Amino acid sequence: MRASVRRSIQALLDGADMVTMLAGAASGAVVGYTYYPATLDADLRLAATGAVALGGVFLFTTVADALLAPLRRRFAQADAADMRAAAQTRAAEARGAAVPSGLGEALDQVTAAAEDDAARRAAQTAYRIDLSDQLLSNPGRWRGYINGEASYYLAPGTVLHYSREESERGIAEPRYTLLTADDPTPVPVTNVRDILDDLAPRARKAAETLAAVEPSTV
After folding, report:
1. Of 163, 157, 3, which Cα lies nearest the Cα of 81?
2. Nearest-angstrom CA–CA distance, 116 and 62
3. Could you tell me how many helices (H) and strands (E) the chain has, helices first?
4. Quick check: 101 and 24 in contact, CB under 8 A?
5. pLDDT tens digits for range 11-65
């Protein structure tokens, strides 16, 4: 139900409350005044009429509330849903994520979120192999993928790969492996020292090769 239609019906319900109260008061006043025993003190007639009028208001409003309770409950739930949706919209806009206008845009947003989630998970659990909290814990250096894996560019031809692997106890544990251009076999990494042991000889070899091809300055 549209919000404008719901507001119109809600206004009618609020007006019905006022009409119910007035009808109850009028009916009670008429009954109290008409059927007040003539043999009793006339000075008490006004007070008795007022009391009966209040009773009429209570009776009419109780019956009306019982009849309209399901409808009011439905409107209350709809209002709560609108408030939640509005709050989610404001939160999304505050984060810079616009509310999607269609399924395609929603898919793009979820895809981007899945990639970012993988990158952040890789950075968040990198302390398992790098307690220095200086290199691998930066999520901006990780490239996440929708399958939950991520990669970290270390050097030309060398990439650190993140994935999750189920342990013997059935618990998904983070797994880091080193991938190099000259050897497609993933090398398990359990410490940042493993990365250093791989890069150091590569750096020496690259330096030796560069020195061998440089022309002599003599």
Report:
1. 3
2. 56
3. 4, 5
4. no
5. 565 555 565 655 555 665 555 556 555 555 555 555 555 555 566 555 556 665 6
Token pair in block for residue 73: 């409950």
Helix 45-94 vs helix 3-34: crossing angle, to nearest 10? 170
- Residue found by looking up tokens 């509330």 in the block: 65
Instruction: Report how far residue 55's alpha carbon sits from residue 24's, in angstroms, rounded to the nearest whole number.
Output: 8
The predicted-structure confidence for 123-147, as pLDDT tens digits, reads as follows 999 999 999 888 899 999 999 999 9
Q: How far apart are CA 96 and CA 109, in angstroms?
A: 11
The mean pLDDT value for 102-128 works out to 92
Model-level pTM?
Answer: 0.52
Question: What distance in Å separates the CA atoms of residue 9 and residue 180, rounded to the nearest whole number?
Answer: 68
Which SS3 state, helix, strand or coil, does residue 138 take? Answer: coil
Q: Which two tokens stand for residue 49?
A: 């009429």
- The H or E element that residue 162 is part of is strand 158-166
**Do the Cβ atoms of 150 and 121 come closer than 8 Å?**
yes
Q: How many CA atoms lie within 13 A of 44 on its CB side?
A: 7
Distance CA 93, CA 35 (A): 65
C-alpha to C-alpha distance for 29 and 97, rounded to whole angstroms: 60
